[in-house]
Amino acid sequence: MPLKVAESLRSYRWFGPDDLRSFGHRSRAASMGLVHADYSGKPVIAIINTWSDANPCHSHLRERAEDVKRGVWQAGGFPMEMPAISLGETFQKPTTMMYRNFLAMETEELLRSYPVDGCVLLGGCDKNTPALLMGAISMNLPSIFVPAGPMLRGNWRGRILGSGADVMKYWTERRAGTIGCQEWAEIEEGVARSAGTCMTMGTASTMTSVAEALGFSLPGASSIPAVDANHPKMANVAGRRIVEMVWEDLKPRDILTPASFKNAIATVLALGGSTNAVIHMIALAGRAGIKVTLDDFQHLSETTPVLANVRPSGEYLMEDFFYAGGLPALLNALSPHLDLNAQTVTGKTLDQNVSDAQIYNTDVIRTRENPVFSSGGLVILYGNLAPNGAVIKAVAADPKLMKHSGRAIVFDSYDEMNARIDDPDLDVDESCVLVLRNAGPKGGPGMPEWGNLPIPKKLLKAGVRDMVRISDCRMSGTNYGTCVLHVAPESFVGGPLALLREGDVIELDVALRRLNMCVSEAELARRHDAWRPQNEIYPRGYGKLFMQHIKQAHEGCDFDFLEGTAPIPEPEIH
Predict the structure, then answer these.
(1) 8 Å CB contact between 438 and 410
(2) Same fold, 42-152+194-354 and 384-530
(3) Which CATH architecture has domain 42-152+194-354?
(4) Distance in Å from the first CA to the final CA of the chain
(5) CA distance 205 to 203
(6) C-alpha of 541 from chain center
(7) pLDDT at position 2
(8) Element (H, E) at 352
(9) Confidence band of 127 (pLDDT split at 50, 70, 90)
């Protein structure tokens, strides 16, 4: 039901009544130089800003917050900027995934505890997007997401560089001895040329595209480069639109439906998007009271074409994707696979938002008649090694390895892998399967992006550039290779991966969606009886909370007490 009068605003409970508590609120507003007309009877809009000096992807968000504020003022609202923890993918350890739920909790509680009628969410670097959306969905106030936007294309000696994908490619060549220190130093200076997120179709651009496909962002917002003049314009329009959304009482759970999540899954698949989206979307849906499973991804993957020719699955970068028409053009091309009646923050349907969008470069954004791949962007695997599932980005893997069996080389930790991987005496050949365990949600802890295990140096020098690699951790969405990820349940809690032994034969069959170790049930039962859990490393603090409540990868890695839509009482104003 649309709001009609100022008294119906949530913020009125703080600022409106003629009582002692509201006197205190208004007097402190006055101490900041504000007068009643600045905020009285106006929607108060929180700007949840994940700007930080520790997050280069968000280094421009101070300016974007001002662009949003201008829009809020123009539309008759009152902006209130609120800083939140910034999850800086390149600097934060052990992994930003450790703190995704922390930011989600902070977002929800900022919105609950302050005089806020609606919010604009500023973020974009990998885990920031799902975290902000998770918190906003749980609080369920009118919300709009402003993505940070991708950075400009990298450059090295006239060659275009992409985050992650090219870094890994050239690091492999450095380890193989085909490029030297000088070339590597030049790549280091040329790969990241501006503010913004990775310019490949990594987790950042995948998840901001998910936000747009779900209806959380303005049409085209996710594709605009961070430093393009269209980006501050978009932020300004978002600031104006959120004020309208408050008066319309248009909330996240009004636009989130099973159909909108299917749209977003299809979008990830058509983009050749990050495997990380599987975990994040299951968590997002759980906050909205909607069930999304691994099998939903598999079912849609079988029929959804990959249309974005963007690295690491394709050739181009996000800047090219924007010039080619951006996400609206791709969604229009994908329209037969979408529910176009889904509602969005614009107040219009998805169809109304994208039906006029055009593709300007049909090599960057393909048509359904000429896809990059006809289907199978992501594949969900099951078997005695992954009874609750695992995921592989088949379109970024070596086709020759899609059916493979080999002897397992098992690393019990990341440190052990680093210590052994380049040992000349390591008994490994290109047919072997590299396995990393104790790297999942609890084992990492936080499920780090270690899944793109390095190829042993002696094999690199022999010309090997891909091998089957299996782990219970994640992989950067910017990376490529035949990497089986998110094996569930994880080894740290006694999943079958914990029972694997070096030398066991592993069979991978992507076409049949199978992942098995060739070990008898009787032997596995014997190994299980002998298995003993490891000690947890956090005696106190957030780490202890994390270890007690984190769920497994196939369940979205949310905290068990944060899922669902059970109402929480509004704070008392006294």
Answers:
(1) no
(2) no
(3) 3-Layer(aba) Sandwich (3.40)
(4) 28
(5) 6
(6) 25
(7) 65
(8) helix 350-354
(9) very high
CB 546 within 8 A of CB 538: yes
pLDDT digits (tens, 9 = 90+) for 12-64: 999 999 999 999 999 999 999 999 999 999 999 999 999 999 999 999 999 99
Note the pLDDT of residue 193: 93
Tell me if the bond preceding 305 is cis, omega within 30° of 0: no
Cis peptide before 399 (omega within 30 of 0): no
Decide if 242 contacts 141 (C-beta within 8 A): no
Q: What digits encode the pLDDT tens for the residues 309-335? A: 999 999 999 999 999 999 999 999 999
Per domain, the residue ranges of the chain are 42-152+194-354, 155-190, 384-530
Omega before 489 within 30 of 0, i.e. cis: yes
Both structure tokens of 73 = 């003022």
Q: What's the longest Cα–Cα distance across the chain?
A: 80
CA angle 114–117–121, rounded 5-degree value: 85
Selection from 86, 82, 68 nearest residue 116 by Cα: 82
Residue pair 448/95 in contact by the 8 Å Cβ criterion? yes
Among the listed residues 554, 467, 447, 468, the one whose alpha carbon sits nearest the alpha carbon of residue 515: 468
- pLDDT at position 1 is 55
To which residue do tokens 């951006």 refer? 326
Report residue 322 as tokens. Answer: 């924007």
Please check the confidence at residue 3 and state whether its pLDDT lies above 70: no
150: nearest Cα among 97, 204, 214, 203: 204
pLDDT digits (tens, 9 = 90+) for 364-409: 999 999 999 999 899 999 999 999 999 999 999 999 999 999 999 9
d(Cα 472, Cα 485) in Å, to the nearest integer? Answer: 6
Which tokens sit at 48? 């949840």
- If we measure between CA atoms, which residue out of 310, 312, 330, 274 comes closest to residue 475? 274
Q: Taking the domain 384-530, which CATH number applies?
A: 3.50.30.80
CA gap 470, 473 in Å, rounded:
9
What the block records as the tokens of 376 is 């199978």
Note whether 23 and 35 are within 8 A (CB): no
Dihedral angle computed from the Cα positions of residues 368, 369, 371 and 377, in that order, rounded to the nearest 10 degrees: 50
Tokens 């299996």 identify what position? 470
Half-sphere exposure in the Cβ direction for 172 (13 Å, CA): 21
Strands (E), 193-305: none
Neighbours of 35 (CB within 10 A): 10
- Cα(177)–Cα(156) distance, rounded to whole angstroms? 18
DSSP state of 539: S
Question: How confident is the model over 161-186, as pLDDT tens digits?
Answer: 999 888 888 989 999 999 999 999 99
- DSSP, collapsed to helix, strand or coil, labels residue 205 as helix
CA-angle at 554, arms to 551 and 555, nearest 5°: 45
Cβ burial of 17 (10 Å; 0-12, 13-18, 19+) is: middle
Q: Three-state SS for 83?
A: strand
Q: What six digits make up the tokens of 149?
A: 């936007």
